[in-house]
Amino acid sequence: MLFERILLPLPSEYFPENAVKRAIQLSAKFKSKLILQYIFEEQVLDKVNNVTSGAVTCQSLDELVKEVKHVEVHSESTVLFEQIENMAKKKNIDIEIERITQNGVHSDEILGCIQKESVDLMVTEFHRDTLLKYRIFYNSPIPIWLEHNGKNINKIYGILTNLSPNVLVPKFALKLTKKFNVPLHIYYVLDNTEPYDENIEKTERKKLFSTIEQKFKSHGLKYDIDLVTQDISNFLGEHFKHKEGALVILGRFKKPAKIPFIRLDKKIEVSKKLGANVLILK
To answer: Which of these, 96, 124, 101, lies nearest to 113 by C-alpha position?
Structure first.
């Protein structure tokens, strides 16, 4: 099974409706356990402290903070959990759901849950105007499904590149294409900002294309494949800016930075700007 345990973090600042719908759908398709993790952000409590510190005594402030924590963590999480379970029931989707309620730092709590619960996929959204720090995108040891729009998946794109070993993308592209029963398009992006030997690259591409063809044809899967010579960040930003019904699968790729000998993982920053949904592999 591709995904056995799916994690859906629920921050206290907003309700990630699109991510919720997608997590329910994926759990149903893969018969996965869906883990709901409600996280009451500590920064919210810090704001309570700052606003009220001049108006109440220390004892009253401590009691107020405890009350806020109790109400938010226990009452709000219960409401959200029931709302999500009802969303699944309305679609006649029967899935196994586990509830986890915590308060703390968003990224830290998620990383702890991933390890403790042996999670193999996280589904989330990107919201710029929240208190959350998106360190989790960089530190997560598992794939992240970044849901942008909640649209039905109508096509899957696997992105291969000379900046990556290209091992995981074909594997995930194959399984997800079969599950969603949609067309698959493979792009090999020859990033022209990275020095390379054209003859070696040509040989490696031919070998890679042949391997993919053998693997996909053995499963009776039809697909398109194209070669693109362009900066990979620019290609992704331009080509997938308005493809709202697409799923783009990105493996590891690193770009050279201006500082010598330093390479930066750019797929996170690029993924946030796309109109398509993105599966970020690790």
So the answer is: 101
